Structure formats: C-alpha cells, structure tokens
Amino acid sequence: HYTFFPNRPRWPPGRTQLTYAFLPDNQLSDNVRSVFSRAFERWSEVTPLNFTETTSFDRADIRIGFFTGDHGDGEPFDGVLGTLAHAFSPPAGRFHLDGDENWVIDGDFLNSSPASAVDLESVAVHEIGHLLGLGHSSVEGAIMYPTISSGVRKVELANDDITGIQELY
Ligand code: TQI
Ligand code: ZN
Ligand code: ZN
Fold first, then answer.
1. Which residues contact 82 (CB under 8 A, 6 or more apart)?
2. Residue having the nearest C-alpha atom to atom 22 of ligand 1
3. 133: in domain
4. Is 18 helix (H, G, I), strand (E, B) or coil?
5. 55, 72, 82, 163: most buried, per Cβ within 10 A?
C-alpha cells in the first residue's frame, strides 16, 4: 500500500504547471533528457499536473542534477550501487542522481550489461513519485516499492501508485 510523507506535503492546489531544469554543468544528451520527459509524463497522465522543461535552473520548481560523492547537502553519494538517487518531498523539488552509477538509457538489457546496470527511467519515475509527495509502498509491483534489482526496468505505474497520487492531487 502507498504512503505519504509525514504531514502529507504536496504541491499546492493551483500549482499544476510545474517546471524542471537540469544542472547546467551536467550537459545532458537529448536521450537523457527525453528519459526524464517520459518519466514525468507517466505521472502527468494520471494527475492534473503538467511538467515542462525550462533552462532557468534557479527558477525551476524541480532541479535535477547528477553528482558524485559529497555534493554539499549532507547526503553524500556512495559510488556504484548503494544509493542511486535521492529526491525530497514537496515543495523542495531537489532531485539528485549518483553520477557514479552505470546508468542505462533505453536499455536493452543484454548479457553485455554490467551487473551494476541501473535503468535511469525506472529510477526517475520512482524519484518523481517522491518529488510529488509519495513515500514508499508495500506493494511489490508498485513503482514506489523501495527496492529494485539491478538491470531491471520498471517504469509503468501500478494501480497502487495511481491510487496514491490521485488521493494527493
Ligand atoms: N534512494 C532512496 C529512495 O529514493 C532514498 C530514500 C531512502 C528515500 N528512504 C527514503 C527517499 C524515504 C524518500 C523517502 O528510495 S535509492 C530505488 C528503489 C533508490 C531506490 O537510491 O535507494 C529507486 C532510488 F526503489 F528501486 F529501490 C530509486 Cl527506484
Ligand atoms: Zn543530494
Ligand atoms: Zn524511494
């Protein structure tokens, strides 16, 4: 079953048009940006929320960046595997990913994939759930379930995720 953060933080009613931006230093490829765009789309399909990319990093509601190790927020990344990413509850909009992971984009997980491969879209869909106010779910098939196997792609919202987010928005 889905959960919320303590005190049920959410983006305020009326704030349905949310912007996101990538850390300018990251210089991400169009492929990577489209992974995030698709991940946001999965949540906008089932809520009144809309997400648009902006180049104005400082003014964006949601700020996305890849960092390695200690990056100044008291929650250092840890190299390959372990913590993959973290996102904070609304309205923080802080979404950090561990730049040391072997991120897979649009992966066909062939035998050539390293055992440490992590599917970027799967992690993005999960972290966006946190950014919108969902905590972890006890339902194994849910996006918000707190574990994923390496090399696995899990990007489709489960009924549990949808019920949870629709209770919030
Ligand atoms: N990062 C944790 C996560 O996003 C950070 C975290 C731990 C957290 N406890 C939390 C965030 C409570 C909000 C509330 O869950 S992670 C997965 C999953 C991680 C884990 O790097 O461990 C995914 C990131 F679910 F697969 F295990 C993305 Cl998809
Ligand atoms: Zn961080
Ligand atoms: Zn999580």
1. none
2. 83
3. yes
4. strand
5. 163
Q: Is 80 in the pocket of ligand 1 (CB under 6 A)?
A: no
Residue 138 has pLDDT above 70, yes or no: yes
Residue from 8, 75, 126 to probe ligand 1 pocket by mutation (most atoms less than 8 Å from CB): 126
Quick: pLDDT tens for 66-87.
999 999 999 999 999 999 999 9
- Reported ipTM: 0.96
**Does 12 reside within a domain?**
no
d(CA 65, CA 59) in angstroms, rounded, equals 14
Residue 105's domain is classified under what CATH number? 3.40.390.10
Known catalytic membership, residue 127: yes
Ligand 1 in reach of 82 Cβ (< 6 A):
no
Any atom of ligand 1 within 6 Å of the Cβ of 155: no
Q: Give the domain extent around 102.
A: 17-68+78-168
Distance of CA 163 from the midpoint of ligand 1 (Å): 20
How many domains are there within the chain? 1
Residue 6 domain flag: no
**Within a domain: residue 86?**
yes
